Amino acid sequence: MIRTLIVEDDFRVAELHATFVSRVEGFEVVGTTHTMATAFQAILTLHPQLILLDLFLPDQHGLELLSKLSQLPRGKKIDVFIISAARDSVSVKEALQLGAANYLVKPFSMSQLAQRLIAYKAAVEKLSMNNDISQSEVDQIASLLRGNRVELNQGGGKNPTIESIKIFLAQSKTALSAHEVGIGVGISRATAQRYLSQMVDRKLLVLELQYGTAGRPINLYRNAT
Predict the structure, then answer these.
(1) What is d(CA 99, CA 6) in angstroms, rounded to the nearest whole number?
(2) What distance in Å separates the CA atoms of residue 172 and residue 90, rounded to the nearest whole number?
(3) 203: helix, coil or strand?
(4) Residue 4: enclosing H or E segment and its boundaries?
(5) Structural domains in the chain?
(6) What are the pLDDT digits (tens) for 146-183?
(7) pLDDT tens digits, residue range 7-33?
């Protein structure tokens, strides 16, 4: 499991991210913090492998924390995803220079976050193999760390949109429509409908029909148990 720490000044956003990340296969959220001071203490006690870091913290700028982490000795490095509304070129450039593994600009969809997490996990797994790595594999790992897509059934990877839909439906107590799924995952209704139909065909989801007083029934979807 990839031990993950959420560093986000907004308590509600931190909880949302923690809930989502914990539902992505292979990730474990070990804590959430909201300031630089508590983040640094959590790093020392919780030993995360990955940090989702907001830049606008109340006591210091998030890049200060990233700078401290970049100075850790070899073997103790912690990977960092910047998740921030800061989109100025100076912040992005400095974050990348300090070694951020990824930079995700708010607002973003959960599908985008899932894409990066799944790609990161694939890169970590490749790097954990104790063998020589070819140039093509180096290029692939670098591409994964940038968050490029890992499609389902290609080398055991998973489609991030499908994973996002499964996670979103798991959070709902009732079956949902394509319109509701699209809003929740951050994709269009038409795209959601296409994915939902494929997932039903593959028995990943169960289709339920809701009949009203008139007109066609509404298609509702829930995860297969």
Answers:
(1) 18
(2) 40
(3) coil
(4) strand 2-7
(5) 2-108 (3.40.50.2300), 171-223 (1.10.10)
(6) 655 444 444 445 677 888 888 888 888 889 999 888 88
(7) 999 999 999 899 889 888 889 999 999
